[in-house]
Structure formats: structure tokens, C-alpha cells
Amino acid sequence: MRVGLRVKCGIVAVFVVLMSCLGNAHAGEVQPSVVVQQIKGRPVIDGILNEEEWMQAKKITNFGQVEPREGEEVSERTEVLLMRTSEALYLGVRCFDRSPSEVLARDRRRDSTGSGDDRLRIVIDPFARGTEGYFFGIAAGGSSADGIVRAGNRPEMEWDCIWDVRTRVTAEGWVAEIEIPFRSIAFEP
Known about the structure:
Largest sheet: 6 strands, mixed
Number of domains: 1
CATH class: Mainly Beta
Number of strands: 11
Oligomer: single chain
Number of helices: 1
């Protein structure tokens, strides 16, 4: 399933697509918008969303399915928390699961797609073109991958950047805590 969301960092829009399987964003579609609050502190990236900063984050819960059944309700609840400092974008993602003991979380390799694990994908389009962006893949086991997405194509995985993610399986599903420095995605907030 792929869900879309448009996020505004200051004046410039950042397009964030969260998806649980690889796919292409629908160029030209109007996406919901939210304002991402700037925070003073910086959370510890450890897969636990318990810092005070996360209490200030914008929470998004109104996701809809894009794949495999566009327009239908999502099969599992997801919460995305968004915030930023002057240097980085932070995402906290709670992936709820009715059967949390069945969350697949084995792959811990860098530049792995996490195939076989529960996973999510994020595409950030810092210039709001809707046709290209930076791809970040995270699996419940902690594997991470990054790449460049161009219109109509799968991510080009040769691109690498500096970013941090930690995951944790919980009694309700799994959590990802993500820090993406703006300098890694050529973006000035």
C-alpha cells in the first residue's frame, strides 16, 4: 500500500510519500498539506518516540490506500510525526499491526530493500515538482536504503546520503525514528 502526503517546511513544499512497497507517485495529484513545526532541541534517534520534541510534532493519521486498492481504507493504522530543526527533517512513524508478534523484522543491512520484512518507503521532493525526489527505505528490522526517484522509474539505488534511522518492534507493531539532514537532500528550509 502506498499513501501520499504533502508537507510544507516553511515556504517551500516537501513532498513526502510513505509507501510499504515500491511504486511510482502519481504526478500532478493534489496532496494534503501540513505545516512542519520547527523545534529547538533534537531528539535522540533510537527508535523510541519518547522525547519531549515528539510531543510538539505534527501528527498525521488520515492515510488512504494507493496500492494495491486505490481509494480504499488502509488495512493497518499508521501515524506519522513530523518536525524539523534548522538543519534536519525528523519523522517518527508508528506502524500499527493487529498481530504485532507477526511483524517481520530480520534484515539489518545498509542499502538493502528489506525484502521480506515489514517496511515503509519515503520519497521527498524538496522542490515540489511531483516527478522526482529522494528515496528512503526502512524495514522493521532496521535495514535502510536510499536512492533517487525519477518520473516513472524505480529508485536509482547508487545514490547515497547521510541520514539516520532506528527501528523498534513494539507491542503494537513497529516504530521508525528518522533524521534526514537538509544538506543531504539539497534543501534550505
